[in-house]
Design brief:
Largest sheet: 4 strands, mixed
Shape: elongated
Structural class: alpha+beta
Strand order of the largest sheet: 4-5-7-6
Order of helices and strands: HEHHEEHEHEEEEEHHHHHEEH
Number of strands: 11
Strand content: 15-25%
Number of domains: 2
Mean pLDDT: 89
């Protein structure tokens, strides 16, 4: 169905005011503020605007304005990170999505990973064909967030150090430990080991230190004073898996108290390609 050529002046005014206020993605409350419509009239108006492809619905009570350049069919979507910022609050782009954003991996995840401290009824959601996965974190792990611009919108993303540690904490959210290893290698000149140490302590998971130390040593990242001394302090006696996504098998590394269930060639072989 093509977009209608005509649109009521009052609707033009409402959409124009929303756009001028930077509300290209808006809520019902936002629309009420810039219009004279009653709630009942606004619901009907939004329904008609959506049907005519002047707006589209992101989720209940949240809409996106479809610009004229989208053409008569109204085929348009906003950047997925901007849409993510409207799906939950608080939020930050994280894990595999942040790893790609910081150019620590060439892999482009098909899912947008979003961390929050707020429980979502659904942990996964699809908007305009893009999948979003929400990872609920404890308050103690929700930090290390920086702001960046996507077009004219500011969005939250985990900083480089927190991104690496998140991936070591939960490799299953970054495509596995091999992707985390790649990220560690690609970021070796940008990452601050002091900051990583401080962040890892705040996260309170000794398995992070085990994976971090093992991979840093394996990849010969020049942080010896950290993985030969500091990161070995206080690691627990248990043997967690290097990659929780992979089968429970492989040798036991007594130095880092890890069960190495991924072939070392797989952890380093990609560097020759």
């Amino acid at each position: 169905m093509n977009r209608k050529k005509r649109i009521r002046d009052s609707n033009v005014e409402m959409l124009s005011k929303l756009a001028q206020n930077g509300k290209t993605i808006f809520t019902v409350e936002d629309a009420i503020e810039v219009s004279n419509y009653s709630p009942e009239m606004l619901r009907l108006t939004l329904h008609n605007l959506k049907k005519s492809k002047w707006i589209d619905r992101i989720e209940r009570g949240k809409y996106i304005i479809i610009p004229l350049e989208a053409g008569p069919e109204g085929l348009y979507t906003e950047h997925e990170f901007i849409i993510a910022s409207f799906l939950v609050d608080p939020y930050t782009i994280s894990y595999w999505s942040a790893l790609n954003f910081h150019e620590f991996t060439e892999q482009i995840p098909r899912t947008v990973y979003v961390s929050t401290t707020r429980k979502k009824e659904k942990r996964e959601k699809e908007v305009f064909g893009i999948k979003y996965k929400f990872i609920v974190l404890k308050e103690t792990k929700f930090f290390g967030i920086t702001k960046t611009w996507i077009g004219n919108k500011q969005i939250n993303v985990t900083d480089k150090e927190k991104t690496i540690l998140d991936c070591l904490d939960h490799p299953e959210y970054c495509g596995g430990i091999i992707e985390a290893a790649k990220g560690l290698w690609e970021g070796r000149e940008d990452l601050n080991p002091e900051k990583i140490s401080h962040y890892a302590e705040r996260m309170g998971n000794v398995t992070i230190f085990k994976r971090l130390g093992f991979l840093s040593e394996l990849l010969e990242i020049p942080w010896k004073k950290f993985y030969q001394e500091k990161w070995k302090e206080g690691i627990s006696k248990g043997y967690p898996l290097l990659d929780p996504k992979m089968p429970k098998k492989g040798e036991y590394n007594t130095k880092w108290k890890l069960r190495i269930n991924v072939e070392k060639q797989e952890l380093t072989g990609w560097r020759v390609h």
